[in-house]
Amino acid sequence: MRRLLPLLGLLGIVLLTGCSDLAGLLQTETQAEPVLTYVAPTPEPFPAQVTTAARIRERGAIIVGIRYDLEPFSFISANGELAGLEIDLAHELAQRWLGNPEAVIFRQLRSDTAAQHLIEGDVDIVLAGVPHTCNNEQEIDFSPPYFINGDALLTFPDTGIRALGDVNGRTIGVVSWTNAGQRLKSAAPVTPTLTVYDNFFQVTEALRTRQIEAYADERHRLERARRLISGTEIVEQYSQVPFALGFRENDPFFANLVTLTFQDMTADGTCEALFARWLPGTPSPTLPRLPGNAPTPTVGDAPQERATADLSAAIKTRGTLRVGYLIDLWPYSANRDDGVPTGFEVRLLERVAEVWFGSREAVEMVPVTREGGLQALLNGEVDVLAGGWIQSRELELQADTSLALFDDGVSLFSLSAAPYRTLQELVGRPVGVVANSDGAAAIPQLTQLAGGPLNALSYPTRDEAVAALQRGEVVAVLAERGLVLSPLYRQAGFTLADARLTYRPVSYVLPQGDSNFRDWFNETLMQLHDNGVFREVYTTWFDDPAPAAPLWPR
């Protein structure tokens, strides 16, 4: 591993160079800056294996790597103070984890060296406009996104520029070192007239004085420009690159702490409030709270040492993928009448094995129960679990999960001759649910959303609930989409409302704390998205649109 550059002090503006093949990220802009006092980094007394949360607990503060030139995310204000969305995020995390919003030590770094600073233990987390890319994913772990960056256009409403097709022959300003002009030409179906400027301030002045009709660049810079030029708006974002909080790999406790804290901040409106302050008019990324009641971990509960597992090497040596699967969870995984495993997740894992080992047969299927499967994973008896496992807060605390395979959730299943589309239509009417299912558990929540009582009738199985619907005992069935979108119910006479009433992502379950294996697995799933294999397998089993691949650029 190459050695880190020394941590920079609080003087001057740092240069942001390229990050994981993502061209044109921020570079230094010439502007007057207040003179600040240099603060030397303090040596870390903790061994490398100490968990991030244990470091924070014993130190009583979070060391946060940031930039000082990334307005409105993290920058030095006119009065010489740190300000911005990322600064406020850091203070909010300190409040939630340590009970003190001021328990933060900020250290300046560059986006392109952020991963190395984390690996070396110089900082606990980075909030420095670091893009979540596939390359960066191989070095560090990430939180859910707090901002979706990407190329867009800044213009005045009266220009009529609303989409890429509107830029034909229009005068569009770009900054020379950003490669924004090249990316715009590649994305646009027409040819704009580009005017090239040396820096951010020149192009924004040109737009303010109407020398150009629009400014093309990455959205984080356009957000700053929008603050400077009254009356402008951002339109037509034509690429997406998430900004996310970065932290060290193979630290499952801290990963859970970060993920569940971000979910809490989304659920209670904190993220939306921060966006309203720093990015008015731009909604924060939606992060639905995972189902379940497990509380968010506390720093006080953190283990002292990190995990060091690496299942990837063992699997490569073995030449097979061991899969624990549920034998009766159609259409995800099940046994055929002849005992042969089948289902969407089984077939997809065969394609994963084909990528890894050159053969779809390199999969060892091990039948498990819901109760015993997780223990088999924890014991190392299987490498991955398949069978409609729902991402939940409880599962998050015991294992890792793959990228989402299916966007499940409770919806309305009814007869085509008498379709029901909304909860409000069901108030006071008999509705079928399957005992001990998500649909049954969601009745109190759905009753509140409906604005009136739901007369829920419980049936032992899905088939019995559907039979009751056919007999007219109930007018609809509240059921998970995965259960009713399988081939079993691809027949005339039934309809399924488009809306999901609850959020239930289905994923493979992976060993906790093995970032290398999770990255290898997820990268393969993304490859199957790219080459069309994922969709090919998906459409064999489901009528719904396949979930989108993540935003991580390569």
Q: Based on helices, strands and strand pairing, what is the structural class?
A: alpha/beta
Major sheet attributes: 5 strands, mixed
CATH architecture of the largest domain: 3-Layer(aba) Sandwich
Number of domains: 4
CATH superfamily of the largest domain: Periplasmic binding protein-like II
Summarize the structure.
With 554 residues, this protein is α/β, with parallel strands linked by helices. Helix content is 31%, strand content 20%. It is built from 19 helices and 28 strands.
Walk me through this protein's architecture.
By secondary structure, the chain is an alpha/beta fold. It folds into four domains: 52-147 and 242-301, D-Maltodextrin-Binding Protein, domain 2, CATH 3.40.190.10; 151-235, 3-Layer(aba) Sandwich (D-Maltodextrin-Binding Protein, domain 2); 311-402 and 508-541, Periplasmic binding protein-like II (D-Maltodextrin-Binding Protein, domain 2), CATH 3.40.190; 410-502, Periplasmic binding protein-like II (D-Maltodextrin-Binding Protein, domain 2, 3-Layer(aba) Sandwich). The chain has 19 helices and 28 strands. Strands 10-9-11-8-12 form a five-stranded mixed sheet, sandwiched between helices. A hairpin with a 5-residue loop joins strand 3 (74-76) and strand 4. Helix 11 (344-357) packs antiparallel against helix 19. Mean pLDDT is 88; it is low at 1-43.
